[in-house]
Amino acid sequence: MQAKVSCGISKNVSDNLLDMLVFVQVVQAGSLSAAARELHVSLTVVSRKLGRLEERLGVRLLNRTTRSLTLTEEGARFYERCVRILAEVNDAEAEVTNGLDTAVGLLRVTSTFAFGSQLLAPLLQEFQDRHPALHVHLDTRDAVTNIVEGGYDLAVRFGALADSSLIAKQLAPNRRVICGAPSYLQRHGYPRTIEDLLSHNVIVFGDPPNNHWTFADGRSITVSGKLSSNNGELAHRWALRGAGLILKSIWDVHDDLRSGQLEQVLPDLKMPAAPIHAVFPHNRLTPAKVRLCIDFLADRLRSLRFDR
């Protein structure tokens, strides 16, 4: 027999969840009347529940006029939490009904723009196809986001990760290579040593652009060039057009190297790897949708065999 656990939840939890559901429906529908129609209740019921919710919280969630409805700052934050909580409730019920090997509900994922658009988006589409009851939202941005505050289930990140309360699982190795377009190398020659890089035009990127390269053997160098950007994809395009050398992850230039659009230089010079990680909040029980997605991504990314 299981011991009783006090979790601090109000006895009126069902009413609270219903109020949250009404609030979310109002935001998504754009008006109280539209939400009432979606929920098949009267406008009076929706208005009363919304008012009760604001009164209980002690804050205004929505600015309402006869023509518009907008979220307050507090309302926007509360809306994101409500969406996540209601999705977790749906997930819990679906897992009991369908078992632990089915991904259901809403899966919110964040990653960088380049990786998200090139690799992660098609993989998540494939994963969703395998789990028809799942809804996937992919948010791409190069700035590192707080996945807990942002309400994300999963983030895909690269390289060494700072210690935190998050869990990180490696999805695939990811070496980095120095490469350039054949047109650039024909004009400027092939570097043969680390020192040769000092005389080359190197495209650097990042926020701020990183022109200090440290190699696996501990040596380091400060490179320079005439083009730099905060956007790695833009820098990649410059390299393809013969503007200079670039240091990129193998997953990003693998196809270019195979097609001959880029050529690797100094292949024996090893750079520290930047493994691809799945990062997710520390929960005692990881939701099935997160666990299944991580397993799927690890299997598919490793099958691509970038290091061949």
Structure overview:
With 308 residues, the chain is an alpha/beta fold. Helix content is 41%, strand content 19%. It has 9 helices and 14 strands. The chain has helices spanning 13-29, 32-39, 43-57, 73-98, 113-130, 182-188, 232-240, 250-259, 288-303, and strands at 62-64, 69-71, 105-111, 134-140, 154-158, 166-172, 176-180, 204-205, 212-214, 220-222, 228-229, 246-249, 263-265, 276-281. The strands form 5 sheets. Strands 4-3-5-14-6 form a 5-stranded mixed beta sheet. Strands 12-7-13 form a 3-stranded antiparallel beta sheet. Strands 1-2 form a two-stranded antiparallel ribbon. Strand 9 (212-214) and strand 10 form a beta hairpin. It is elongated, with a radius of gyration of 25 Å. The protein starts with 12 loop residues before the first helix and ends in a 5-residue tail after the last helix. The model is unreliable at 1-11 (pLDDT under 50).
Primary descriptors:
single chain, elongated, alpha/beta, about 300 residues, disordered N terminus, three-stranded antiparallel β-sheet, about 40% helix
Short structural description:
With 308 residues, the protein is α/β, with parallel strands linked by helices. It has helices spanning 13-29, 32-39, 43-57, 73-98, 113-130, 182-188, 232-240, 250-259, 288-303, and strands spanning 62-64, 69-71, 105-111, 134-140, 154-158, 166-172, 176-180, 204-205, 212-214, 220-222, 228-229, 246-249, 263-265, 276-281. The protein has nine helices and 14 strands.
